[in-house]
Design a protein that fits this description.
Blueprint: E1 7-8, H1 20-28, H2 42-51, E2 63-66, H3 69-80, E3 84-89, H4 93-101, E4 105-110, E5 133-137, H5 149-161, E6 165-169, E7 191-196, H6 197-200, E8 209-213, H7 216-224, H8 233-242, H9 246-270, E9 273-274, E10 281-285, H10 292-297, E11 301-302, E12 304-305, E13 316-320, H11 324-335
Parallel strand pairs: 1-11, 3-4, 3-5, 5-6, 6-7
Antiparallel strand pairs: 2-8, 7-8, 9-10, 10-13, 12-13
Helix pairs in contact: 1-8, 3-4, 3-7, 9-11
Length: 337
């Protein structure tokens, strides 16, 4: 990490940072760090069931905690051993890495720039009995595009009919105004929802994610697939404290809903092509190689170049939506070249 960086727009976490209550809980329980963590995360799973509002039909046995969402992506691929996996391009690169690590082949559904890289009903043509698994990121990373609710329902039905295991990654969803799919669709035994506190509560360094699946057999197998004690004591303490911070997410959403259009308009005025986003980050494109990441880093500002996302190149950049003061600093730095 470059200690000269003063504002990091490359990390798309909550603009409010980690809640004070979480920091206090960590400080108050620092002596507990000497102990081994609960390998089954019993308190955390019990509270997650209530936190997600799914306790009516979802037990702690249907939830698995991990060291961030990426840990659980790899475990799922190890347990299910999918041979052909459908992925959007561009999307989060860890899906591809995890699938290929366990011998799976990737089938790409290429999102179109002229459609703001948004998912359309065309994906239904690619969901067939030859595909074993589909990863969907909602909202998608790095585009920020949400999946239309009706289309998502059609996708879940198509996956069910074709015996395709659907993994719905909702790590960024709490920072949007859309409710979790868990409240709208009954996830069946061939699907799972992936979540994390990394983005929601700005806990990237603590590594806490969780997987929700109706099939508790898959949860059990995924649990066996990872090392014991991989969710640390600090991560469990932080997760329990974060779930009590009820107004925190609403306050963050309020900032994002105000600042995202401001930042998008400002980026357009500078001359960039800005893609429609529903999330706490924005994808934009330059007309030529401006070396933005390198030039901004000299001014203490870090942004994400998207050259390593399949379907994009080094003309694309992603920036997170931060506070108004921070966003102004970014815009000023970009205006000055």
């Amino acid at each position: 990490y470059n200690n000269k960086i003063k504002i990091d727009f490359s990390v798309n976490t909550n603009p409010l940072g980690m809640p004070v209550e979480v920091k206090k809980a960590l400080a108050d329980h620092i002596t507990d760090f000497e102990l081994y963590p609960d390998s089954e995360c019993r308190d955390v799973r019990k509270n997650l069931s209530k936190y997600e509002g799914i306790s009516r039909y979802m037990k702690p046995a249907n939830i698995l905690c991990g060291a961030g969402a990426s840990d659980l992506i790899y475990r799922l691929c190890y347990v299910l051993q999918p041979k052909r996996v459908l992925l959007c391009a561009p999307t989060f690169s860890e899906y591809e890495k995890a699938v290929e690590m366990y011998g799976g082949k990737i089938v790409y559904h290429e999102l179109q720039e002229e459609e703001d890289f948004r998912l359309t009903p065309r994906i239904l043509n690619d969901i067939n009995s030859e595909v074993d698994m589909l990863f969907l990121c909602n909202p998608n990373n790095p585009t920020g595009a949400m999946i239309d609710a009706r289309l998502l329902l059609e996708i879940t039905m198509a996956c069910s009919m074709n015996n395709v295991f659907l993994v719905l990654d909702e790590c960024f969803l709490p920072l949007t105004n859309r409710e979790s799919s868990l409240k709208h669709f009954s996830i069946d035994v061939r699907s799972a929802v992936l979540k994390a506190f990394t983005k929601t509560y700005a806990m990237a360094g603590l590594r806490f994610g969780y997987l929700i699946a109706a099939n508790d057999g898959i949860i059990s197998e995924c649990e066996k697939a990872g090392p014991c004690w991989n969710v640390s004591v600090p991560a469990q303490i932080a997760a329990l404290a974060a779930m009590k911070c009820t107004n925190y997410i609403e306050n963050a959403r309020s900032i994002i809903e105000t600042e995202r259009p401001f930042l998008q308009d400002a980026l357009r005025e500078i001359g960039f092509k800005v893609f429609k986003s529903d999330a706490n980050f924005i994808l934009f494109k330059t007309k030529e190689d401006l070396q933005l990441q390198k030039n901004l880093a000299k001014r203490g500002i870090l942004i994400r170049n998207c050259y390593n996302f399949k379907g994009l190149n080094d003309l694309y950049y992603r920036v997170s939506v931060k506070t108004h003061e921070e966003n102004l600093k970014l815009i000023k730095a970009l205006q000055n070249g």
